[in-house]
Amino acid sequence: MSDERRDAAMQGSPEPLPHAGTEIDDPKFADKSYSQGQLVRRRFFRHKGALAGLAVLLFITLLAFTSIGIGSIPGWWDKDFTTTGSIVNGGKPTLGWFHLGEHPFGQDTTGRDYFALVMRGTQISLVIAFVVGIVSTIIGTIVGAIAGYFRGWAESLLMRVTDLFIIIPLLVFAAVLGRIAGQSGIFALALVLAGVTWTGLARLVRGEVLSLREREFVSAAQAIGTGHWRIIFRHILPNTIGVIIVATTFAIASAILLETSLSYLGFGVQPPDISLGSLIDQYQTAFTSRPWLFWFPGLFILAIALSVNFIGDGLRDAFDPRQGKDG
Amino acid sequence: MTRYILRRLAISFGVLFVGSFLMYVLTINSGDPLEDLRESTANNRDTLIAARIDNMGLDLPWYQRYWQWLTGVGGCFVGRCDLGTDRSGSDVLSLLQQSASATLRLVTIATIAAIIIGIIVGILTAIRQYSGFDYVVTFLTFLFFSLPVFWAAVLLKEYGAIRYNDWIADPHVSVLQAVLIGIALGFVLQGVMGGRMKRRLLTGGVTAVFTISALLYFTSVGWWRSPALGPVLVILVALAFAVGITALVAGLGNKRVLYSTLTTVGIGSVLYFVLGGALDEPNWWLLLGLFASAIVVGLVVGYFMGGYSRGQAMGLSAVTAAFMAFLTFADRLVYAWGSFLQLKPRPISTIGASTPNFPGDFWETTLDWGAQLLLPSILLTLISVATYSRYTRSSMLETMNQDYVRTARSKGLSERTVITKHAFRNAMIPITTIVALDFAALIGGAVITENVFGWKGMGAMFKTGLTQVDPNPVMAFFLVTGTAAVIMNLVADLAYASLDPRIRR
Hints:
The complex is a heterodimer.
Chain A: H1 3-11, H2 36-46, H3 48-67, H4 114-150, H5 152-167, H6 170-181, H7 186-197, H8 199-212, H9 216-223, H10 228-236, H11 241-265, H12 276-283, H13 292-319
Helix pairs in contact in A: 1-2, 2-13, 3-4, 3-13, 4-5, 4-7, 4-8, 4-11, 4-12, 4-13, 5-8, 6-7, 6-11, 9-10, 11-12, 11-13, 12-13
Chain B: H1 2-28, H2 35-38, H3 45-56, H4 62-74, H5 92-127, H6 132-145, H7 149-169, H8 175-193, H9 197-220, H10 230-249, H11 255-274, H12 284-305, H13 310-335, H14 337-343, H15 362-400, H16 403-410, H17 415-453, H18 458-467, H19 471-499, H20 501-504
């Protein structure tokens, strides 16, 4: 596939499509040609689960970032997550069907507004999950491409490192590293987590590159004297973009679970920073007396991970329809 | 083949060595091991600090400490294990011996349960692709993938265990509850069975009526507090299993296999009564011996009755014998439930790996273990089941689209033969890899579940070790899990070779 077509695949076309709702993969309707991007986008938007996931994820992200603001920029919610106050009505949540009330998610044991706390935790968990997903994708893609294209020592190194992660449980390795990095802030933690989660994607990319490097268009590029790096980045990797995007979404979903688990064990996000995992850790003993302190952060983790997983599923069907509806 | 396995083993041990080095260096650099003492205001602070420096060898450079640890572990090969001491000076090896069994029991049970359930669910969803059942299972797998274990664990503790314990104190199923449960079960089963409307209604109806009457009957005779299976039920279930597994694998037309499995059940039923007395106060070695001899009996029966399909008859009879032995075991275990409830009125525990100073006999102690294991293993199983069923489904769908499956269908083989012999066997190949790779993840999950349920297992050892920057307990944890992972990989390689003859060359 040429570069131009792939570029189109990434950008797509903004025009509305004719005969919407018909089966565009069917050659009968091939009177208009669709770019790869249009095909992918249409298949994605037909996947109801993925659309719902996208809507939920956008809603949660907007809610988390607009409500309490980012850094010094204030949000629309009038309370912040550090101010303690008097406990109203035993700190019970005031959230109703159509009204938020004073403390929609209740108050914690020192009277802090729990909605603001959960929003702060969601912000940090989301930021870490996305940084981990993106950085581990970059590392994994580069290592996988080098291992698959040049083979030799790079490949055996990759294979041994993956073997290492089969033997050391990921959570254990991440816990040891997280204990070191957690004290230096959330970005250090995210980078460290990315440093241990890239192996799966690297193997995947290596497999793709191994088969692509034998194809004619690579031989053609080599014949006209194209450099190795240009072949990798301009000819081979654009053909694996589907695999990479799908793997990134799943990496984000597992990153949020990894981070919250680590924070729950006490090896992830360290105070004064708050993560959804550390909130659960902090309040799990309060389950019988104040169950809401336990319910809300868990529900947010579940909602985020579930929606990202559904988006990933939709993307996989969109990029590779062979794996989806047709078997 | 031997060379292949030896090479894999050598690589694994090399990786284990590099991993241990990495873990050691990272652990000792993860914080300050003297932090709590430096902040302490005790009078004998300096003595305490000196004692800890002595216990942990903090006056030595890091490579000497690692070398000490490595030579201690190397001693295991000549029978003198020395895993060092933790920071308070107690021997890590004896700590490990107390904690390892609980964790390994948990992880093994979860793995076995997840393999069995995951593969069965995966095959069913692949066969009934795009049915309501398939969609529900797909949604559930996504849910389990996205579930934070530590959160789900607390929920299960609060709503599963505590509610059950309240209920078992005065077990009562009202008619309405029985009807609802029956209808729900019937609905699920008709979805799994599929077929035409008439068949679905029949399956659902029969299941619902059976479940409702069973629930009400159990309540009326007080089965919940003093349950029993009894010889009739054991033999009936074993007969059904023998017929079922023969029908599934060999086909009922193969009379030799059918007679061989039925004979095995016959012998098992006689032994059930003969050996009854020996099982009153057994131990694990006796049970293991009986289990092994049951398998031998199955093999012998298959050998003499198998005729032209001797191999299949031997295999299936052995499986039937193993199932029969397991049923007899379960029968005894269920029978002990009544006296177990007397000893422990709230059976399902939420804290700890075993009740301290539990007075019961063999069966009651086993039940106590089971009650402790139940919740953590349900959690670990759920998450792995999601992975395994998903992989089994896609792997099955992939093989069902292959040409050789079409060939098998077109030469007139029954659907059963096509699925069990041609599709399933080939679909298993990628799944063995997944199971081996997933083992390390399960151990990681065990760290979390142990923390939630307050087990003093290896996960707790790891967690406190890491919190206190104490390398020896952390390394002991790594040693056990790493070795277990290496062994799992070896088993997977062997399974791989037996499933895919191309590897053997």
